[in-house]
Specification:
9% helix, 229 residues, Jelly Rolls, 8-stranded antiparallel beta sheet, mainly beta, 54% strand, 7-stranded antiparallel beta sheet
Amino acid sequence: MLDQARKRASRRKSFWRIARRICCLLVLLPIGGCTSVFELPVAIPDIFDSFDVTSDAWELKQNAKTDQHISNGALRIEVLDTNYPALSILNTGPVSPEFVCEALGFIGNDYNGVGSWGICWGAPRTGTYTAVMLRSDGKYSVRKRTPSVGWTDIVDWTFHSSIKQDAGPNTIRIETSSNSVSVYVNDINLGEHPVTAFPHAEFAVVAECTAGDRDIVAICKWFLLDCDR
C-alpha cells in the first residue's frame, strides 16, 4: 500500500514538472535594478500573489522586532534583531500533504550581515512547522521547528552554486509527497529529503537576520498548488 502511494505521488509530481515546463508564461520582473524571470504555470494555482495591491492575505506573527508592508510589487518583511525571526502567515485554508509551492524573493537594500528567508508549512501559528530556507552566503537548509526545541536541521546549511549570494534574487520551489520534499532553487534540483507530513498544512514566509542588526526580505511572487484538489 505504501509503495503504491509513493508511486502515485511520483507520477503526479512527474506530470506536474512536464506540464509546468510545457505550459508556462515567462514574466519579466524588475527587482532592485535587475531583471529576473519567474515562470507562472498556465494552470491556475490555488493561490497566486504578485503583491500588486495591499491586502490582508498575509498576517505577520507579531513581535516588537519585526514589521511588514506591501509596496512596489513586493511583500517586505523587516527583521530588526537577530533574536527575533519574522513569520508572515498566509491567511488561507489548509492544504493536503501533497502540494507545489514557489516563491521569488530577495534581501532588500537595508541588507546588513547574513540574512535568510524561506517557505515554511505546517502549523506556523503554534510554532510547529518545516521550512526550506536560503541564506545570503549561498547556503540552503531544510529545517523543522517546534516550540519546545526550536530549530532542528534536516539538512544542515549547505553551499550550492545555484543560489545567488548577497541580495539575490532567488526562487525557491518545493514539491511534497506524503513524507518527503523535493527542493528546487532557480530551477535546479537540490534533492529530495524526508520530512514530517502535515495532513492540513498552512503556509508562511520566514525571515531571519543571523548577523548584523537589520534585514528586509522582499517576496515578489508566490504561488501554491494543492495537488489533491
